[in-house]
Amino acid sequence: MSSPSALYNGNMDDLRSTWSQRAWTLAVSAGILASLTTSAFLAASSGSFTSLAGAACAAFAAYSFADLATGFYHWAIDNYGDAATPLLGAQIKAFQGHHRHPYTIVRRELCNNLHVAARAVAVVLPAADAALYAARVPAAAHVFVDVLAACLVLSQQFHVWAHEKPRRLPRPVAALQAAGVFLSREHHAEHHRPPYDTNYCIISGMWNGVLDGFKVFRGLEKVIYLCTGIRPRSWDTPDAKWREHGIDDAGN
After folding, report:
1. Per-residue buried b or exposed e for 76-86, using 16+ beta carbons within 10 Å of the residue's own CB
2. What does the alpha-carbon distance between residue 94 and residue 104 come to, in Å, rounded to a whole number?
3. What is the pLDDT of residues 40-87, one digit of tens each?
4. Is 159 left (phi over 0), alpha (psi -120 to 50) or beta?
5. Residue 199 Ramachandran class (φ > 0 left, ψ -120 to 50 alpha, else beta)
6. What pLDDT is recorded for position 12?
7. What single DSSP character describes residue 190?
8. CA–CA distance, 25 with 95 (Å, rounded to integer)
9. Mean of the per-residue pLDDT values for the chain?
10. How far apart are CA 16 and CA 124, in angstroms?
11. How far is it, in rounded angstroms, from Cα 142 to Cα 77?
């Protein structure tokens, strides 16, 4: 059985974390933890059941919205643009490479995998928190923003776990996947079958049934095509950049 390094055509150093990636991931982790702690204190200090219930509902709403947001983002970069696209070119190229070599994601070091979202959240979260404090909004609003930030940063790690062998997963992660809290391997596997046009959400996948059942993305693709003449990649037979190349010992 071929090893990932034998099948992966890129530089294996690309899977390792750089000091810059570690710094961004550490910085955003500390920022999110501090913000979540403050939000929890604000909710608890009120001593009101309504405030605590509101914070819990806000946390679930953020978790749900994050899953939906990853679906739309994943759909967009899977279907439009290329490596030359401003700002998103590297992400588009990476996701195309992931379709051909899906197993390499489990070999990526943590910060290498999370740093793109970490950079964005590290810039946006402090400004969002400052605006919320200035507006004197309820604690639930702070909780929503902080949980959303945490889910978006960790979304790629949930994606990694959905490609990992069950026996290699930490038991709590496997249990949460089985409960539908985290994206499961079985659920995400549907996305890696041609024409790669379903199951785009990568946190829990809770929105995939709705989005695919109501053909939301197919409708958007038709609107975009009618307005611009641009065809999404999922309408055409996948080229060599998309077809999976080889299978590793994880069975991906």
Report:
1. bbbbbbeeeee
2. 11
3. 998 888 878 888 999 999 999 999 999 999 999 999 999 999 999 999
4. alpha
5. left
6. 66
7. G
8. 20
9. 89
10. 26
11. 29
CA distance 246 to 13: 20
pLDDT in tens, the chain (252 residues): 223 333 344 556 688 999 999 999 999 999 999 999 999 998 888 878 888 999 999 999 999 999 999 999 999 999 999 999 999 999 998 888 888 888 889 999 999 999 999 999 999 999 999 999 999 999 999 999 999 999 999 999 999 999 999 999 999 999 999 999 999 999 999 999 888 899 999 999 999 999 999 999 999 999 999 999 999 999 987 665 555 554 443 344
Apex 148 CA angle, 116 and 67, nearest 5 = 85
In the numeric block, which tokens belong to residue 156? 């790629």
Provide the H-helix boundaries in the chain. Answer: 4-7, 19-45, 49-79, 89-100, 110-135, 139-161, 171-178, 185-189, 208-213, 216-228
Write the CB contacts of 19 (distance below 8 Å, at least 6 apart in sequence). none
In angstroms, rounded to a whole number, what is the distance separating the alpha carbons of residues 175 and 184?
A: 10
For the record, the structure tokens of 130 come out as 């400052």
